[in-house]
Design brief:
The protein has 389 residues and is mainly alpha-helical. The chain is built from 15 helices and five strands. The chain is globular. The termini are far apart. InterPro entries: AtHST-like (IPR044502), UbiA_prenyltransferase (IPR000537), UbiA_sf (IPR044878). Its main location: plastid. It is found in: Plastid, Chloroplast membrane. One of its GO terms (cellular component) is chloroplast membrane.
Amino acid sequence: MLLLQVPVKPTPHCNLIKKKPLPQYCSRNLSSLATNANPNYDKKITVTTRTNPSKRFKKFYCQPVCFQHGGYASSSKPENDGDHFLTGLCKQWDAFHRFCRPHTVIGTVIGISSVSLLPLENVTDLSSAFFIGLLKALVPSILMNIYVVGLNQLFDIEIDKVNKPELPLASGEFSMGTGITIVSTVLLMSFAMGVMFKSPPLFCALLISFLLGSVYSIELPLLRWKRHAFLAATCILIVRAIVVQLAFYVHIQKFVLGRSVKMTRSLAFAVVFMCIFSSVIALFKDIPDVDGDRYYGIQSFSVSLGQEKVYWFCVNMLLIAYGAALVVGASSPFLPSKLFTILGHTALASLLWLRARSVDIADKASLTSFYMFIWKLFYAEYLLIPFVR
């Protein structure tokens, strides 16, 4: 049995159904409507028909009808609630995924995992206790990461409508209430885990991330540090370069493996290199967003100095950092460490230079793509850091 849903729309020519037999020319139009059925249109309307061209139009109440095979009317509707639910669920998940800013979450996961490998001295250290300790560090840190990026979106809705209209708060996919609920929930869960796991360096990392993430975004007197280029870069540098390296190294070394804390060559390299890299990310992230930042009074370096100057400053800073990494690798007493460090950083520096030359600085899409490429270099660096010995 074939069911067709007839869309009902006001037309000047005829109506759809009436308690009396329909005029012949109206039934022809009704058949035409049935061939272009729209199951989503179910609004009852009032339309008119004219049974005799010489008489006035008469009003009738019409509603959607379904036609069974053979021409008889039926009021049944196709069952597609399950499909609508799945579609809505997928859309909500996609919006939540964009709300979390996944490139920052990936950076957090790779960074903490890489630093957690630095205290290991041999293969036997890769025990179940190590992986449990790593998991205890990752989960609350990811939640805190979502809090920081989510809070920033709550206070940047108007700016993001210009700079990042695809974000769910700026696009209207999430309401302000939904955003506040998500941010509050992940913050409470993060701190609850930090207290429950009884690791002081882990809790300190969460607390510092919370404080700096809050003063970076919140619109209050003496806060909203993102309005000032130096303070904004400082927030990102402290968290990404210092807190991540030191706090999670101590967490694994002392509170998971039970060893005394000592500064190592690889840890010192990670802190210094990530200070440079985090500064570059803090500067470069504003280059594609100059239009919205300038309009809303965000005095980033890109607004003050110009996009091109900041762009090449960032590229040159990364090339200098890679050059320093080659020197560190060449001075290593371990041949495998020397090979991995030299070859890896040579490859990354070459990719950076080739890609940087092809970017159109006047094109926002090209700049945004290159910014995401810098994040990929950031991930790759954390893969090389454990080989620095």
